[in-house]
């Protein structure tokens, strides 16, 4: 089965840049999505199709990828960005959904 | 405006069958290409995809649970139903229905306990 691997935690100070990585063999061939999840809330997509930002998502959120790794970058982190972040992709034929294990972003 | 809402029991006993309903609005599941999914999240743990159902009634299940899951739709009622048999305490989780990636329900917490 396919897996997506994320670091369990990332910590940054306000105003700094946070980078959260997601690695998996499917990523060169399938789109990646990033979700933000705050306590007690449903996930919210912050990046579509590797690097597209949905309407309403602040410009400080961006996505990029290289080979088997994709990266969510949050520039000028704000206290409100403290949350769990999940990457998501699909299996090699594009049907089954795969989630990463999640990364807890702490704003110091 | 797309909305989804999960409903079902908050507490089930081990070995029982769980039935969850997703009631949605703002789109039709009979539209070509449409798909609805179920995802769960145990407390403090990661998201886990469970199942899809497609506009043409095609269905897909996560391999690890496919013998226990059944998904169905009632297009006229704008509902999707997921059943999971032989529930166990490890199945305690918040269960979400979603039109991945953009639209998610609020989730419903299901606790499995005797």
The percent range for helix content of chain A is: under 10%
The assembly state of the depicted protein chains is: heterodimer
Q: What's the N-to-C terminus distance of chain B?
A: 40 Å
Number of strands of chain A: 9
Largest sheet of chain A: 6 strands, mixed
The counted number of beta strands of chain B is 11
Q: What is the number of helical segments of chain B per DSSP (H or I, 4+ residues)? A: 0
DSSP summary: helix tally of chain A? 0
Query: Average pLDDT across residues of chain A?
Result: 96
Order of helices and strands of chain A: EEEEEEEEE
Most extensive chain-chain interface? A-B, 19 and 19 residues
Give the overall silhouette of chain A: globular
Q: Give unreliable regions of chain B as ranges.
A: none
Largest sheet of chain B: 7 strands, mixed
Rg from alpha-carbon coordinates of chain A: 13 Å
Tell me the fraction of residues in β-strands of chain A, as a range: 35-45%
Please, could you describe this protein's structure?
The complex is a heterodimer of chains A (108) and B (114). With 108 residues, chain A is mainly β. Chain A has no helices and 9 strands. In chain A, strands 1, 3, 4, 7, 8 and 9 form a 6-stranded mixed sheet that branches. Chain A starts with 8 loop residues before the first strand and ends with a strand. The model of chain A has no long low-confidence stretch (mean pLDDT 96). By secondary structure, chain B is mostly beta strands. Chain B contains no helices and 11 strands. In chain B, the strands form 2 sheets. In chain B, strands 2, 4, 5, 6, 9, 10 and 11 form a 7-stranded mixed sheet that branches. In chain B, strands 1-3-8-7 form a 4-stranded antiparallel sheet, with no helix packed on it. The radius of gyration of chain B is 13 Å and the shape is globular. The mean pLDDT of chain B is 97.
């Amino acid at each position: 089965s396919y897996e997506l691997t994320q670091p369990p935690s990332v910590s940054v100070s306000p105003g700094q840049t946070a980078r959260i990585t997601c690695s998996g063999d499917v990523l060169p061939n399938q789109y990646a999505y990033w979700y933000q999840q705050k306590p007690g809330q449903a996930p919210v997509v912050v990046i579509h199709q590797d690097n597209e930002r949905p309407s309403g998502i602040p410009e400080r959120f961006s996505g990029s990828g290289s080979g088997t790794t994709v990266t969510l970058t949050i520039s000028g982190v704000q206290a409100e960005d403290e949350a769990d972040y999940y990457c998501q992709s699909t299996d090699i034929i594009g049907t089954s959904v795969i989630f990463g294990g999640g990364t807890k972003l702490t704003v110091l | 405006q797309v909305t989804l809402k999960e409903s079902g029991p908050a507490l089930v006993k081990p070995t029982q069958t769980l039935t969850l309903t997703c009631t949605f609005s703002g789109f039709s599941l009979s539209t070509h290409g449409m798909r609805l999914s179920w995802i769960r999240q145990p407390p403090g743990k990661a998201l886990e995809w469970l199942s899809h159902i497609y506009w043409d009634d095609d269905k897909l299940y996560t391999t690890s649970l496919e013998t226990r899951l059944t998904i169905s739709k009632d297009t006229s009622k704008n509902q999707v139903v997921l059943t999971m048999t032989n529930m166990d305490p490890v199945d305690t989780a918040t269960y979400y229905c979603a039109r991945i990636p953009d639209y998610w329900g609020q989730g419903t917490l299901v606790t499995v306990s005797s």
